[in-house]
């Protein structure tokens, strides 16, 4: 889907709140790329050599002004392209704030030489991540695809730069989808908060409105207006093209020249400038559907193109540190969560300090505490030790950049287009030059109590869910045409062959004497090591009767250190290694190669010897109970609960639910007993990927975890199988929403080990994966009922379910539901067209290697498969099943396992007409 940056950050923040963790995703601009890329400076500062020599990076500027940067990365046979147009909502015409966003949508509606249907078909066949985002100053289009398809991806972008179709008829159809996107965002209280704060901090500037746009402005927007914007700003001399991945730089540049050279440069006006003026302090009160209250303070800050950017970033890291006073409100029991984020736009930025408090409590004491902490920073400066620790962390994270091909492309795009720097090495130099004195001076200059926006986000009730036995009958729809799309010759030649991918070298896979499973995948792309792990748990089965919530409480207490390192001491030890570490049922460790053994020792100490201090237990138990008190009445919780209740039998273990009362009954002895019973090496898997040999990894893990033992035989903790569900309907009111969120769900009788699950995955690709899928075509492109729609199988060891999800205005819910069920029903009765099946096969076969285009993805995929008890080569076994599948086989699988008439419908939001 096409997401504005504010929406990306808002969703991350909302999810964090609902999980009772943190608002670390709060962002004004596009989310920062996951671990940024490498640079010589970062390498020198951290002791790790740069993974990609700067000499290997090829730069060029074409005669028409297009800047090109090609960064090789051999992690996987995959490439990412990002084309950055240096324009966004700042240049929108007066009264039309969403113009840049609307044009972004229309870039997917076809161009000269490649119409919308051809683009959708080709994008699906390539199987990659094909999307875009609009920000205030930059609009980006990115594609991750197999390396062999680089020329095809570049051809798509060249055609779009050379001339969009931009017809009024296409805009009339796309208008409905983009207005559904607006409705979705206006239904989110955090989006409302960000937009209001942005309008205050940047009042009177082009940043006053974010990039999303409004329904009234889209109603007035015409294709002619979009064409004017396109012809004004979408010129090669106003763009930066970044290519990262498994590409030969010289050959890739030759392809770029061949495809883009003929596009003429144009005179491009100067982009609008932003000059932020001081604003008077004020308070915003917002009702929300969140489970907890949030108090937030916001200030203006320098932008990412400012010389003070790195200093402001380090200031944010210092204030947000878990060793600092703001987060200290949490272990003190004064806040459920607290942190600080700095999120810049290119020409100006904002900082937000926030804290969560229990539903029904007052925020004033918390606001006073936050103000006091921030005032102390502004008045007395920052800790020099923390500044150096945060610089070390930032530089270490730069060394992780080439661990993700798309992340590496993103880093270079952020550096060039958003920060105006020449390379990530310049960013590393800026971080290395930051001093404690500069950080303290910046805090004094910007964290001003007289220029502060205070916000109070207060939860409110929306009413109880309403259920019924079923929902209305399906409407009748004519079957959509399924004729093959004729691709241009260059595209057809590029993607004609279907070839199952070759499985990579199998990872080292062993089980230690104590039952712990260790999987090691060496990768010398960077001098870093990533570990992910899990202790397989099923709280619904393992939690003793009457102790609901003990699993969550136990997991939360790992943050409080060990007998060797208390909470702050553990965090300092992690900072000293410039590492990332977390323990509990899910483990993570990221270090530079030389620090891996020391980091692993810290992780093992945390996992095997949690301190479970009594004071922390008392505070955390209270916080968990307070968070639950709000969560259990929140619309999002009630929505998820209604979906579970619709498809699971009464009394199913998965319906067990912790309550404030059950949590407050727990004792520290209950926590320790649960830890002894549930945290066992024979239920644990560790996956290590990176610059390490299997022998080294095994020896280090045996030293750190080899002494861990479990008592008695390995327990059976799987959930029982469930009967097939029947159709019901439920509605969850949400007074904060202007759009309904809809889930259609059912249980299935098939297990993940049944080979037919590959056929179901293939058929679901036809139904709902990408711009050319049936659901996307029918619910968005043809009707404009929705902005996005998805469907997925939820596979478990012992049970499976299937869901279709979308958001729609209340008036569109019934027809969208009927159309979705019609499309699903067609999958059970009629073999898919050969052309559709070929497209789905091409997509899935190309996706298999792309799922291993980052170190994190490699580790996560292996851990996921291990958790399901599946062989690690399952994706490649599946690829052969996809290749061999026939239309009849896919139809028969859907006919056997899917039951459209049994789907339950759960709606959250306004009542249906």
TrEMBL record:
Its EC number is 3.4.24.-. Belongs to the peptidase M16 family. It is an enzyme of class 3 (hydrolase). Residues 33-54 are annotated as: Disordered. Residues 1-31 form the signal peptide. Gene3D superfamilies: Metalloenzyme, LuxS/M16 peptidase-like. The keyword Transport does not apply. GO terms for biological process: proteolysis. GO terms for molecular function: metal ion binding; peptidase activity. Residues 222-393, 666-844 form the Peptidase M16 C-terminal domain. Keywords: Hydrolase, Metalloprotease, Protease, Signal. It comes from the Bacteria. This is Zinc protease. Residues 68-213 form the Peptidase M16 N-terminal domain.
